[in-house]
Design goal:
By secondary structure, the chain is α+β, with helices and mostly antiparallel strands. About 40% of the residues lie in helices and about 15% in strands. It has helices spanning about 15-25, 40-55, 70-75, and strands at about 1-5, 10, 30, 40, 60, 65. The protein has a two-stranded antiparallel sheet. Strands 3-4 form a two-stranded antiparallel ribbon. A two-stranded antiparallel ribbon has the order 5-6. It is elongated, with a radius of gyration of 17 Å. It comes from Cirrhinus mrigala. It is found in: Nucleus. May be involved in transcriptional regulation. InterPro entries: C2CH-3rd_BIRD-IDD, Transcr_Reg_ZincFinger, Znf_C2H2_sf, Znf_C2H2_type.
């Protein structure tokens, strides 16, 4: 186990600890080359980049509205239930 030097959380993988420590240090090493917004996690940057492409691959099964991320579609779909 790998312990956080800032709090009592422990992680199995060193990479998870590194990502967690960014919460404390406010480090955001992943920067969008289009709008210069910064992110602590690479996958968040990847999801963000979809805003710039205009591609909306996820469609609401209830109203056919389209979304660039599955997460934003799932939040939207709660309106229908």
């Amino acid at each position: 186990w790998h312990g956080c030097p800032y709090c009592s959380k422990e992680f199995k993988k060193p990479s998870d600890l590194v990502r967690h420590i960014r919460i404390h240090t406010h480090e955001k090493p992943y920067k969008c080359k289009q709008c210069f917004r910064a992110f602590a996690v690479k996958s968040t940057l990847t999801a963000h980049m979809k805003i710039h492409t205009g591609i909306k691959a996820f469609e609401c099964q209830y109203c056919m509205k389209r979304f660039s991320t599955s997460g934003s579609m799932k939040v939207h779909q709660r309106l229908h239930t």
